[in-house]
Automatic annotation (TrEMBL):
InterPro entries: SFM1-like. It comes from the Archaea. One of its GO terms (molecular function) is protein-arginine omega-N monomethyltransferase activity. CDD domains: Arginine_MT_Sfm1. This is Uncharacterized protein. It holds the Pfam family SFM1-like.
Length: 195
């Protein structure tokens, strides 16, 4: 079994990030997931209630992991499960367009990492963790996983339709994109706020 590690790279665990992290745990299972580089006391407390957490960075804990980086030239495959017992996902919320922060903040910190991509588009953190888990621990090739590009959340408020577009790639399970329901509700609530 390949352990999926999410290396926390944001300043703190704010709601959007928490909802993606929590969904990753729900999808993969608490015993199959480890959060690293979580050092703020409040963040440790919040994440320990849902998963395994350490303040140590993955660079301290693992010497030859698989690192998932959108800029990697080689795609993740089930055969990679024979090369390492750990796959690391960057706990970093995506920019649109991407700025290559995974490479700068994570991949470049390892000397002997096996660097792989999940495809040409950015995935959500929970989507990337789920996809890596399915490929490495269930032996399903990337080409057999269905994805959807982008999700638009709409809410009608006072006769006006407001939209939030999430321009990321999401794996699909049972004909639905894998996305945190709590995150979607959080974003819908944010549409009620007068800006």
């Amino acid at each position: 079994m390949v352990l999926i590690v999410i290396e926390h790279l944001e300043e703190c665990v704010f709601p959007w990030l928490y909802f993606e992290y929590k969904n990753a745990v729900r999808l993969i299972g608490r015993s199959n997931l480890l959060f690293t580089n979580v050092c703020r006391e409040d963040d440790i407390k919040v994440l320990k209630s849902i998963a395994q957490v350490t303040c140590k960075s993955s660079t301290e804990l693992f010497k030859e992991p698989i690192v998932l980086d959108p800029q990697a030239k080689e795609m993740l495959s089930p055969e990679d499960a024979k090369k390492s017992t750990v796959a690391i996902v960057g706990g970093i919320l995506g920019d649109h367009p991407p700025r290559g922060r995974t490479k700068t903040m994570l991949t470049s910190k390892f000397e002997n990492a096996i660097v792989r991509s999940l495809g040409p588009k950015q995935l959500s953190i929970d989507g990337a963790a789920y996809t890596a888990h399915v490929v490495l621990n269930h032996g399903i090739p990337l080409k057999e996983i269905k994805f959807i590009d982008g999700i638009t959340i709409r809410r009608k408020i006072g006769g006006i339709v407001h939209e939030i577009h999430l321009p990321y790639r999401y794996p699909v399970l049972n004909n639905k994109p894998i996305v945190s329901i709590e995150l979607l509700e959080h974003l819908k609530r944010s549409l009620n706020v007068n800006v």
